[in-house]
Amino acid sequence: MTDTLKRIDPRRPFTLTAQGLKRITLGAVRDVGEANAGSVLPLDARHAARLDQPKPRRTTATPHHVLLVAAHADRGALDDHARQTLAGAALIANADTEVVLLVFGEFTGDAAALGADKLIELPMFDRLTYAPDDELNALAACVAAYAPAHVFLPDNATGDGELGRRYAAAANASVATHVVEIDAAHVCSYIRANTALASRTLPDVVLLAPNAVDPKLPFVGAGERVAWRFDREADGTVAQSVVRDLGIDEIDAARVALEEADFIVSAGNGVSDVPAFELLAATLGAAIGASRVAVDDGKFTRDKQIGATGKTVEASVYIAFGISGAVQHLQGIKDCRHVIAVNLDASAPIARRANLTVVADAQETIAALNEAAAAARASRATAATLLQPGKLAEGVLA
């Protein structure tokens, strides 16, 4: 079995790829066939092998139909789930259909590389502000302007899934949620406690489950940015919102559930000074995780364990101190965006998963970071003292 083939549940639905619908079963790739692949574009194997060549445009024909993809951006980028949703729309679009991407929040990525033909950016919406009515009005205005055949959103708990359901209810549109299989002709969702699949033709609104689509595309979109002005008062259909934003409450990072934490520092067998590690976590404002070995040794409570036998996390930044990276632990951090490993063994499994590996002793690195943080705090305190009235002249004379 090659490294590109994953051993997964053989009963899972097919995944939409550039070659069509595929399923990986015990290391063997099985095709659904051209008949069931809809209008999915074939992938030239020779082109895939030569990644140095520019990818072709998906289509240059005059568009007559539209597929609309809406998603929230995070720090200027789309997460994996949103990219999969956009790729799904691009893969099932035919030659006379364009894919329009509507981004709530600032977007600094390459929309063309992700498969979008047009990009509409709404930077006034961000994850720090909860404005469901305004977002619903913006989505409805975009649908009215482009009249898409179908609207696609990631089915997540961070705003997209809720927006899709609210729009479907407001527009009296057909909708399919938790879609685990999709092509140009049908969608499927689990029913009966995930023991059976329900299938239907593509509805007006498709809420896609994660990992139903391979986001690797053999083509690019046009990537045209469209200037869009959205006036919340002029375009709003709701006279007065029943939702009131109470703002953001900051809490101690140690109180945040690991499944919800955006920044995690995790300790393994290479961490011996637990108080120093906890001090670093508090300084960085990060939640604390641990490997199974560290938990079994009694250094951390069981609720801190990360891995297949513990908790699965989706942090934007995950720093692993002294963790070798057992298969179970890597399974628990597979959805983390940026992984930094601090380990003496440069060939440890965690190093292959990490975006950055620091080959150093974990305990010495923790001590050095604590010292650097203490020095930075002292420097800021000194500067603040000198800027106080009556202290500036004294400091200069000294």
Structural descriptors:
398 residues, alpha/beta, Rossmann fold, 2 domains, 9-stranded mixed beta sheet, 5-stranded parallel beta sheet, 23% strand, ETF_a/FixB, transport, Electron transfer flavoprotein subunit alpha/FixB family protein
Sheet with the most strands? 9 strands, mixed
Alpha carbon gap, first and last residue: 71 Å
The CATH level-2 architecture of the largest domain is identified as 3-Layer(aba) Sandwich
Task: State the secondary-structure class.
Answer: alpha/beta
What is the CA-atom radius of gyration, in angstroms? 25 Å
What's the structural domain tally? 2
Q: CATH-wise, what's the superfamily of the largest domain? A: HUPs
CATH class type of the largest domain? Alpha Beta
> Could you tell me the strand content as a percent range?
15-25%
Gross morphology = globular
Helix content: 25-40%
Query: Reading side by side through the largest sheet, how are the strands ordered?
Result: 10-9-8-11-7-4-5-6-12
**CATH topology category name of the largest domain:** Rossmann fold
As residue ranges, the low-confidence spans are 33-49, 235-239
Query: Number of DSSP helices?
Result: 11
